Amino acid sequence: MDLSAFWQFFKPITKSSSGVNKKLKDSGKIAVLLKYFHQDRILARVHLPSDTNEYNSAIISADREHKTFDLDELTPEEGNPLLLKDHHVTINAQVRGISVHFEAELKHSKTSSGVALHTFHFPKVVEYLQRRSFFRAKLSAGNPISFSGIHPDTRKRITGNLTDISIQGIGATIYYNGQIYRGEKFKSCRLTLPNHETISLSIEVKQVKKIKTNSQFHIGCIFSEIDSNARKKIERMIRTIERKQLRSKKKR
């Protein structure tokens, strides 16, 4: 499942601007979700019934056939013997912009070379909170982020500058002597940041609008393929922009 399919998997919710809790019960979809925990190296915040402390861990594998997943040892390590007594955890995490919460029962634990590994049954229900919209950072001409890509059919080069960016996608003004259509996927695209650092990714066009001339368009896109390092760079950049904008509003 690529990233665009992932966002379709968690269909947008529009009932509230602050977000709405939804429940995921299908074991196949839960297996996909747990796979992303491992693939993206997502930090799992673990709570135990008998303890008020929060522990960190990571899901390192998921077995769809047997409906189990493996949780790495807890940090701090004092949580591991408590887990063996409780046989139950509550896990919270952020998975590609979606807040995820679920409970799971311990199946068994083992220790190898002094490192604990805990195997759990799939959760019966996963609750997730998806925001109505993601913070979309508006970009100024003073700190441009350039965009370049290759059209999938004509193989002609497309260039332009971003107008905004979120953890889900981008808006950009591009130059291309041809037609751009909604639903087209552009692979091997590149963003060049103001510090000359580059990010490689793939996008799917969701909105297209011609502006000024036939060779200039504004496009709205979602990320269809992006690796974890690139996504982390984007998340850090968005947080920085968001903080600057909040400080600017407070000064007014």
In words, what does this structure look like?
This protein is of the alpha+beta class. The chain folds into 2 domains: 3-130, Electron Transport, Fmn-binding Protein, Chain A (Pnp Oxidase, Chain A, Roll); 137-251, predicted glycosyltransferase like domains (Thrombin, subunit H, Beta Barrel), CATH 2.40.10. Helices cover 21% and strands 46% of the residues. The strands form 2 sheets. Strands 1, 2, 3, 4, 5, 6, 7, 8 and 9 form a 9-stranded antiparallel β-sheet that branches. A 6-stranded antiparallel beta barrel has the order 11-12-13-16-15-14.
Please name the defining characteristics of this protein:
252 residues, alpha+beta, Pnp Oxidase, Chain A, Thrombin, subunit H, six-stranded antiparallel β-barrel
Give a short overview:
By secondary structure, the protein is of the alpha+beta class. It has 2 domains: 3-130, Electron Transport, Fmn-binding Protein, Chain A (Pnp Oxidase, Chain A, Roll), CATH 2.30.110.10; 137-251, predicted glycosyltransferase like domains (Thrombin, subunit H).
CATH fold label of the largest domain: Pnp Oxidase, Chain A
- Please give the CATH architecture of the largest domain: Roll
Query: What's the CATH C level of the largest domain?
Result: Mainly Beta
Along the chain, the helix and strand elements come as: HEHEEEEHEEEEEEEEEEEH
Shape: elongated
Please indicate the percent range of residues in DSSP E strands (runs of 2 or more).
Answer: over 45%
